[in-house]
From TrEMBL:
<comment type="similarity">
    <text>Belongs to the V-ATPase 116 kDa subunit family.</text>
</comment>
<dbReference type="GO" id="GO:0046961">
    <property type="term" value="F:proton-transporting ATPase activity, rotational mechanism"/>
</dbReference>
<keyword id="KW-0375">Hydrogen ion transport</keyword>
<keyword id="KW-0472">Membrane</keyword>
<dbReference type="GO" id="GO:0051117">
    <property type="term" value="F:ATPase binding"/>
</dbReference>
<keyword id="KW-0813">Transport</keyword>
<keyword id="KW-0406">Ion transport</keyword>
<dbReference type="InterPro" id="IPR002490">
    <property type="entry name" value="V-ATPase_116kDa_su"/>
</dbReference>
<keyword id="KW-0812">Transmembrane</keyword>
<feature type="coiled-coil region">
    <location>
        <begin position="107"/>
        <end position="134"/>
    </location>
</feature>
<dbReference type="GO" id="GO:0016471">
    <property type="term" value="C:vacuolar proton-transporting V-type ATPase complex"/>
</dbReference>
<keyword id="KW-0175">Coiled coil</keyword>
<comment type="function">
    <text>Essential component of the vacuolar proton pump (V-ATPase), a multimeric enzyme that catalyzes the translocation of protons across the membranes. Required for assembly and activity of the V-ATPase.</text>
</comment>
<dbReference type="GO" id="GO:0007035">
    <property type="term" value="P:vacuolar acidification"/>
</dbReference>
<dbReference type="GO" id="GO:0033179">
    <property type="term" value="C:proton-transporting V-type ATPase, V0 domain"/>
</dbReference>
<dbReference type="GO" id="GO:0000329">
    <property type="term" value="C:fungal-type vacuole membrane"/>
</dbReference>
<keyword id="KW-1133">Transmembrane helix</keyword>
Amino acid sequence: MAPSTFFRSEEMSLVQLFIPSEVARITISHLGEKGLVQFRDLNPSLSSFQRSFISEIKKLDGLERQLRLLSEEAEKQAIPISTCDYDDPEISRIQSIREIDELHDILNTNEQMLDQLNSSYSELQRQYFELIEQHAILQESSTFFREDNFQGDGGISSDVDTTQLLLESGPGDSYGVRYVVGVISRQRCNTFERVLWRSLRGNLYMKQSEIQEPLWDPQSGIAIPKNAFVIFSHGQELLGKIRKISEAMGATLHSVDDTAEARMAKALRISARIEDIKAVMDSNNQTRRAELSKISISIPAWYAIVKKEKALYYVMNLFNYDRNRRCLIAEGWCPTNELESLQSTLKMSSENA
């Protein structure tokens, strides 16, 4: 036989292996570690979903998805992922079915725990930004309800105190001036004002001011610049139109008390709730970081285990299954001078199973 060189492969032999089902995983693992056989696909007519071990591969795909989720969560928290020694016997050895099931339970538990923490944090964050928005609108209302005169098409003269009309008038009064208060994206303010003016034919009085701190937008899920506004008008029909147009333009409407004392008391209550929610959010974040820090230590080792298991089942899907003999039938190419090593590996796998 010609000696092997860099440009010449070994003389190869086609081998057929009969591997009992109960030792198939450990046998393929040992053969893979030695790199002795290049297996042939004995099921070329079958698709990936028709093969014998597709259910096991799907289960391992689920474990990979969970590991990716945990890795992404750790990256969001700026937690470094530890490295592992892939030559460590605890990682490189073949895992038992029981150990794979235990890993599945561990990842399920961690995923559910993180889902609960993330859901809780998202809800707290939503409440926090809503309270921040309410607090901002209460602060801006101090400028809206100051003494100011305006002339509207409803016959209100310029020498009438707007605030006095607002606080003293009612449905049965001659003026009946009421108001709508809310916040809207700063980008839409000009369009919003034009639509209102044309729809109500100028029968309104609108004031707006910029809120300094960007506020959370439920549609985009990010903080954006917003403006606070108040619209004075009279009659329930016009107020109803204002509310509909405001909601259609993406504005958030808020109820604001008529008196400064009531607004001040509400602002104090909201400030207290904001502090409480911030404390709970900080606690939630600390718990999440602590759990992810513990998980990040094991993620690389878990990845290695799952990838090796998937590789084993991908190879086993190339084989035929003999139901009568309850064994897997494999064919592949092996270097002729490694046949003895192949036989000893098969014998060792059977003895160690």
